[in-house]
Design goal:
Membrane topology: Multi-pass membrane protein
Number of helices: 8
Family: Belongs to the UPF0056 (MarC) family.
Protein name: UPF0056 membrane protein
Number of strands: 0
Organism: Motiliproteus coralliicola
Order of helices and strands: HHHHHHHH
Mean pLDDT: 87
Helix content: over 70%
Subcellular location: Cell membrane
Length: 198
């Protein structure tokens, strides 16, 4: 396994998926007392997101190639999309209103657009496209599994996460991660422009 690729992928995925923020939102969407329902929703959301990120990451580029879209164009558009996501992370407020309604939140909004949204799916394609060796591809795969597994654990422990970090802690963390994501987005755009020129 390529450790540098793994750490880069874990960092990028952690920033855009934000497992802690996802756990806090999950906590507000699922009734607190229904432990079985919470487990099923968390497990389904993690599984669906993992499959989407892996499949789209591996086969998204060939699909785009058939449509005549280059990886450099994807880097630029993906970078702009990630920057928009980062901008929203920094500037927008999120409401956490606890629900008592028992409904399926695994696909929407937990998997799509939260865990496997446009930003993270684009990032998965970019990470797999940069991973030229088998070791690097396995590292990206391991990074996806690490982040989705940690998100699953945090969703299952979301009531404790809420007690420990609280709304203020999440606000600080989300905005800090937004700044890092903005820098990552600009790097993707720069790489895309360099690739087109070169």
């Amino acid at each position: 396994m390529d450790l540098a690729t793994y750490l880069n992928a874990v960092t990028a995925l952690f920033v855009i998926i934000d497992p802690i923020g996802a756990a806090l939102i999950f906590h507000s969407l699922v009734p607190v007392g229904d432990n079985r329902h919470r487990f099923v929703m968390a497990a389904k959301a993690a599984l669906i997101s993992t499959l989407l990120l892996i499949i789209f990451g591996n086969y998204g580029e060939p699909l785009l190639s058939r449509l005549g879209i280059s990886i450099e164009a994807l880097r630029i558009s993906g970078g702009l999309l990630l920057f928009f996501t980062a901008f929203n992370m920094i500037t927008k407020d999120i409401e956490y209103n606890q629900t008592t309604e028992r409904k399926d939140v695994s696909v929407f909004p937990m998997s799509i657009p939260m865990l496997a949204g446009p930003g993270s799916l684009t990032l998965a394609i970019l990470l797999f496209s940069k991973a030229e060796s088998t070791a690097a591809q396995l590292s990206v795969l391991a990074a996806i599994l690490t982040i989705t597994a940690s998100t699953l654990v945090l969703m299952l422990l979301s009531k404790y996460v809420k007690l420990i970090i609280g709304r203020t802690g999440d606000e600080i963390l989300r905005r800090f991660l937004g700044v890092i994501l903005a820098a990552l987005a600009i790097q993707f755009v720069a790489d895309g422009v360099t690739g087109m020129i070169g």
